[in-house]
Design goal:
By secondary structure, the chain is α/β, with parallel strands linked by helices. The protein is built from 6 helices and 7 strands. It is 37% helix and 25% strand. It has a 5-stranded mixed β-sheet with strand order 4-3-5-6-7, covered by helices on one side. The longest helix has 17 residues. It starts with a helix and ends with a helix.
């Protein structure tokens, strides 16, 4: 929190705990690349880059989309905040070309066909490796992991989990919960401290408990 406040005051950058969590998760995946990959068909594939998809709500929460940041493990916290803030502003203003193109393509599909259409798109892009960008479908648009936040939702939740999104082929979703004041053990004393809980959902077909624990430990150290 002190770092966030300092960067906001001295550099004029709106840094949040979501930016910190995104960077820390990327470092965990860099340190333990066995957790950085995807499932295609019945085979497991490792990724060469650590790309993080950050979910973005718009229209007062009625719409949920997001943006992908590439090579986040090599980005500074400043760059993460600047890039994500700029893209989020574009998404909420409905000026992000990639997001709007995808929305327009999906809006032309009848509701009853949406499920089969998404499965077909997933097969064509991931299993067959076809580039459907000219049809408004960016290839591998979700990356290594997803990060989403309920920081702006005053729901009083100390702990919540986000579901996996099968279409995305992303094996890790991290939900940044609200910061809450809670009792904590500090040395030999119990003190009231600000506590942040991260809820993590992972695909056990790709990541086992040992790898997940190592990624989590690296994230916590960061």
């Amino acid at each position: 929190l002190a770092l966030i406040q300092r960067m906001r005051e001295t550099e004029g950058i709106h840094v949040t705990v979501t930016h910190l969590g995104t960077k820390a998760l990327a470092l965990g995946l860099r340190d333990y690349p066995d957790g950085n990959g995807l499932i295609i068909g019945k085979r497991l594939y490792k990724r060469d880059e650590v790309d993080i998809f950050c979910q973005v709500s718009s229209e007062d929460g009625r719409d949920l989309s997001g943006v992908k940041l590439c090579s986040v493990d090599r980005m500074s916290l400043r760059d993460i905040a600047q890039q994500l803030n700029a893209r989020v502003a574009q998404v909420r203003a409905r000026k992000d070309r990639e997001v709007e193109k995808t929305k327009a393509s999906l809006s032309r599909i009848p509701d009853w066909l949406l499920g089969p259409a998404m499965r077909t798109i997933g097969y064509l892009t991931y299993d067959l490796g076809l580039d459907l960008s000219r049809f408004g479908v960016a290839y591998d648009q979700f990356g290594s992991a997803m990060v989403t936040s309920i920081g702006l939702i005053d729901a009083g939740l100390g702990m919540a989990l986000a579901p996996l999104v099968p279409f995305s082929r992303v094996p890790i979703v991290v939900l940044v919960n609200n910061i809450q004041r809670r009792p904590a053990v500090v040395g030999d004393q119990i003190m009231i401290r600000p506590i942040l809980t991260l809820g993590c959902t992972f695909d056990h077909r790709f990541i086992d408990g040992v790898t997940a624990a190592r990624i989590a430990a690296s994230l916590r150290r960061a």
